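Hi V.,

You were right to ask for the full record rather than a summary. Here it is.
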Amino acid sequence: MSKYHTTIGLEIHAELNTHSKMFCGCANNPEIDTPNINICPICMAHPGTLPVINKKAVESVIRVGVALGANIADFTEFDRKNYFYPDIPKAYQISQYKFPIVSGGKLKGIDITRVHLEEDTATSKHDRGDYSLVDFNRAGVPLMELVTEPVIHTSKEAGDFGRELQLLLKYLGVSEANMDKGQMRVELNISISEDPNVLGTKVEVKNINSFRAVERAAEYEIKRMTELLDSGKGSEIVQETRGWDENKQSTFSQRSKENANDYRYFPDPDLPKLFLSKVFDIEKMKTELPELPEAKRNRYINDYGIKNEDIESYITDKELGSWFEQVATILVNKEKIKIASNYITSDYLGLKKTNNEIKLPNAINFAELIEMVSSNKISSRVAKDILAMIVIKDESPEKIAEEKGLIQNQDEGALKEIIQKVIDANPTVIATYKGGKENALMSLVGQVMKETKGSANPTIVQKLLKELLA
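Predicted structure:
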């Protein structure tokens, strides 16, 4: 156990999926490949242009705040955050400083400091060798920034928080939050200290494009700082911004960390002050929230009693979760619902991995399949085979089983004849079984199942084998 205490705070940016940009009418289209198409004099910062606030973006941030159980500001304003960089055409970014839209709230037990609204920067392209280009399609896209309190203490906790926020944003419909497309970016603020009540020197890590990378970057920094402190080189831990190199799985120094004074924040004179309660009905917005991930988890546990891993599959994939609920409504019985969930998360998702083109079967047909396997009308093996059929061609499982002779044979008289045939053909296995090797019996069960094309009830087969070999 380390003698150092780790403290982590997160800054997470998410692009909001509004139709237009934050301060102009240009299309907000993250999918476009052609550079510098969705641009205008406002997002290119031509002299004399004036920004206009995107009301939908403000509403989206309020929805996030309401979902977090946070305080929604009555008064808010936009500020100019001044710095020069090629991806900021105005030489300042319109952001929020003293008066964020959202303050407080919690997610996964983690305290939130604030959630504010700003504009995204342009995209710098560094793939031309000896020079770079800038694509301004992203410049001015509405960007939500959420800042946590420094109350996270492990890399896993940091990754899990990011995953939960991504889910929340998707459920609220305010952002796709796709990290692969840069729609959600995470920055780590991390320090270690021997005294749990005193924070160490804070290092910020940027350029993190996956939740696994968040965890690895945190682990790398904890190890790097621990080694420096242990070797008496604690002075080499300086407040700075570091980048994450995915290929090397390590961080690297970028620049000394700026503070608020360096940005010379001041209220943007081109934008009006906002009194949100005059524009938005916050109480109504609370009643219009969809069922959120944590509430859904609790409902699935109480109503269905299924495994936590299964629940996460349904929470993460909303289409799969909705379909599972249709199946559960048809089945009603809790035990049958558990069986259905096992087939969905192991067998159906297994088929999906091998062939991404397959579709969810009709909920009625899938429920019929579960009824058949629950009543021992078909074996588990046959159920898996029929499932593989109904995800391709939507048919009644009972019809398929009857046409292919897969209804489980429970006629002991007919089964005895097949079993005797298998016994006669396997004298060596019989001798092994009678010599005390109980497992040899399962070899015989398997051969009987093969002879009956899986239609025999394996429990009855095992019972009859023991009787005939007694």
